Amino acid sequence: MFRTAPEDAPIPPRAPGEPDSLPDAVSLDRLLVDADPVQIIRVAREVIGRERLAVVSSFGTESAVLLKLVSDVDPAIPVLLLDTGWLFPETIAHRDALVTKLGLTDVRSIAPDPNQLKQRDPYADLWSTNPDACCAVRKVEPLADALTSFAAWMNGRKRYQGGQRTHIPVVEQDGVRLKFNPLARVAPADVLAIARSAGLPPHPLAKFGFTSVGCMPCTRRTLAGEDQRAGRWSGTNKTECGIHTTL
Ligand code: SF4
Q1: What are the tens digits of pLDDT across the range 160-198?
Q2: What is the pLDDT of residue 217?
Q3: What amino acid positions are annotated as catalytic residues?
Q4: Residue among 59, 87, 116, 134 whose CB has most ligand 1 atoms within 8 A, to mutate
Q5: Positive or negative CA dihedral for 85, 213, 58, 73?
Q6: What is this structure's pTM?
Q7: N or C: which end of the chain has fewer CB within 10 A?
């Protein structure tokens, strides 16, 4: 499925005398450009350390695969779920099923600041008038706060999802942090194969035609022939919540 980098491929060192400095994103990306997802996660775990490395997961329709691979490397790597207050109950059930199945030991729900919600979305209708502002207060800002104690994070974006994801690197600089995209190079068939061979439970909404699941007001079923993420913010120009574009 993937060409793998040699096991003994040199990992760019941290700068001498600067224990908190991070390896260079460009060097890491070059090292891992052809690596398989597990190898990318393993290197991230090795160079960053478990306590300073987080996985951000929506527990959506394809989240199980990244979480399975993470759990193969280290099930204690912290996993952050942005609980916006608008998640489907099925997503919460899927989270609980995956925690049990994969033995994840450190899954954290990240909630918006209640004072900010009171000021900026007092009637819980901001999604309908200004979805970017809603995502800012319910996703982007809570994640920025949650990531202050981490040096790097991983996520499940794939190039085949298209749009702004078409050209994502394997490793990139994200402000002061590194961001790892272990699934950047996978194909839909790879995702399916990993899910099947591991016996991963599907998201409960997948069987009803939801190919990508986010918040309730901003997610609809996809229709035949539509892109996988066509049901997200349907009818608007919005395609990303902002955590990958504004952090
Ligand atoms: S996806 Fe929709 S409901 Fe969720 S935070 Fe963004 S705008 Fe708000």
Answers
A1: 988 889 999 999 999 999 999 999 999 999 999 999 999
A2: 96
A3: 241
A4: 134
A5: positive
A6: 0.90
A7: N
Q: Which atom of ligand 1 is nearest to the CA of 127?
A: 7
The answer to whether position 246 is within a domain reads no
Is 230 among the domain residues?
Answer: no
| 103 burial type by CB count under 10 A (0-12 exposed, 13-18 middle, 19+ buried) | exposed
Dump pLDDT digits (tens) for 19-29.
457 789 999 99
Whole domain around residue 194: which residue ranges?
A: 25-218
Is residue 138 in contact with ligand 1, taking CB distance under 6 Å?
A: yes
Q: Look up residue 83 and give its two tokens.
A: 């609980």
Whether residue 38 is contained in a domain is answered as yes
| Residue 224 β-bridge partners | none
**Domain tally, the chain:** 1
* Residue 231 maps to a domain: no
Q: Strands 171-174, 177-180: parallel, antiparallel or unpaired by DSSP? A: antiparallel
pLDDT at residue number 247 = 54
DSSP state of 8: T
> Which CATH number do you get for residue 65?
3.40.50.620
Question: Which of 127, 212, 239 is the best mutation target for the ligand 1 pocket, counting ligand atoms within 8 Å of the beta carbon and taking the most?
Answer: 127
In ligand 1, which atom is closest to the CA atom of 238? 7
